[in-house]
Design a protein that fits this description.
By secondary structure, the protein is of the alpha/beta class. It has 13 helices and eight strands. The protein has helices at about 10-15, 15-40, 95-105, 110-120, 130-145, 205-215, 230-240, 250-260, 265-275, 280-295, 300-310, 325, 330-345; strands at about 55-65, 70-80, 155-170, 170-185, 190-200, 225, 245, 350. Strands 3, 4, 5, 6, 7 and 8 form a six-stranded mixed β-sheet that branches. Strands 1-2 form a two-stranded antiparallel ribbon. A hairpin with a 2-residue loop joins strand 1 (about 55-65) and strand 2 (about 70-80).
């Protein structure tokens, strides 16, 4: 299992297809150079036009060291004069800007304006709005390819969660659910497995999303970690046939709601002793001890805990070294936080 808490960029850096962020940086850099050379020559490659100012003359290879790894570039050459991309000039933070192009372009709806601003920040000039629009469409296509890529190997641990964003629909502003799946494979590599957008977290929506993941190759799932949303639970049972772990953080919120304001500290301390146990047998024994103590004065809470025991302690059937990441949805909540931080800048999206 991985131990670090990853942000959005780290998750992309850990993914395959192969090495998605590095591939996207290379692809976008190559397209930006092609667009800039198109402006310098006055024509697209191979086009016969009286407006042509210069001609292409092959390529020269150059390695570009980025945080995502070495990117192999093919820099276009011209028959008259020379060409060198501005973003490769010394001291220019081009790789950071180019990463921002990729991430912000997609998150902000592949906005021509936002991408144009970022391209200008990279030191590239004279690229027209139509060229920027074309580049945006190409970036969007590559991201869609990533989101629909085949999933290879076994994924024993999967986290599922949803966040909500505002979208305009038929003249109204509505909230839509953005559902996300993160998985860890047998090598301990964590990846974003998929994402989808729907009107709500209905069982049919979750079921369709999980079936889409299985069609893409999701297999070997042993444990699914999520909150206790009824539609999601039903979809997990129907599609994945895996053990379900109820998120401990969400569980504690429900518990404290039953405990009343005056009982928060005492109840939290009691339940904390359960999660401090090293084996499942010891945790189950302590669970029963705590529930028996709570039956006096907190009978509704005790009944709630009777029903939740198996789901909350499911993670303890798995290796002890993995449990710190398996008992809650915290790994995916961090990603949701990154999405919210960026989508809050947009406010209301024009469409899904």
């Amino acid at each position: 299992m991985t131990n670090e808490t990853m942000n959005l960029q780290a998750l992309l850096e850990k993914t395959t297809d192969p090495d998605f962020l590095r591939e996207m940086i290379g692809f976008t850099a190559q397209r930006l150079m092609a667009l800039e050379v198109e402006t310098l020559t006055g024509a697209e490659p191979g086009a016969r036009t009286p407006d042509r100012l210069n001609q292409r003359n092959g390529y020269r290879d150059r390695d570009w060291e980025t945080r995502a790894g070495t990117v192999e570039l093919r820099i276009p050459k011209l028959r008259k004069g020379s060409y060198f991309p501005g973003f490769l000039e010394p001291r220019r933070m081009a790789e950071k800007a180019l990463t921002a192009v990729i991430q912000e372009a997609y998150i902000q709806g592949v906005s021509t304006r936002s991408v144009d601003d970022l391209i200008q920040a990279m030191g590239m000039s004279d690229i027209s709005k139509s060229q920027v629009s074309r580049l945006c469409g190409e970036i969007d296509g590559r991201v869609q390819t990533f989101l629909t890529r085949p999933l290879e190997g076994d994924w024993p641990y999967v986290w599922l969660d949803a966040t909500y964003v505002k979208v305009r629909r038929a003249g109204r502003i509505v909230s839509v659910a953005v559902i996300i799946a993160i998985g860890v494979n047998n090598d301990g590599r964590r990846e974003v497995l998929g994402m989808d957008i729907g009107p709500s977290e209905a069982e049919t929506f979750w079921t369709g999303f999980l079936r889409q993941l299985t069609r893409r190759g999701l297999r070997g799932v042993k444990l699914v970690i999520s909150d206790a949303h009824e539609g999601l639970k039903a979809a997990i049972t129907r599609v994945l046939n895996a053990t379900w772990q109820r998120c401990q953080v969400h569980f504690m919120r429900n518990v404290l709601a039953h405990a009343g304001r005056n009982g928060h500290r005492l109840v939290a301390a009691f339940i904390g002793t359960i999660f401090a146990q090293e084996t499942k047998a010891a945790a189950r024994t302590q669970w029963r001890n705590v529930v028996d103590k709570l039956r006096v004065g907190h009978h509704k809470l005790a009944a709630f805990m009777d029903q939740a025991e198996e789901d909350v302690l499911a993670f303890m059937d798995f290796p002890a070294t993995h449990r710190a990441k398996l008992h809650s949805t915290n790994p995916i909540e961090r990603l949701n936080g990154e999405i919210k931080r960026r989508t809050n800048v947009v406010g209301i999206f024009p469409n899904a």
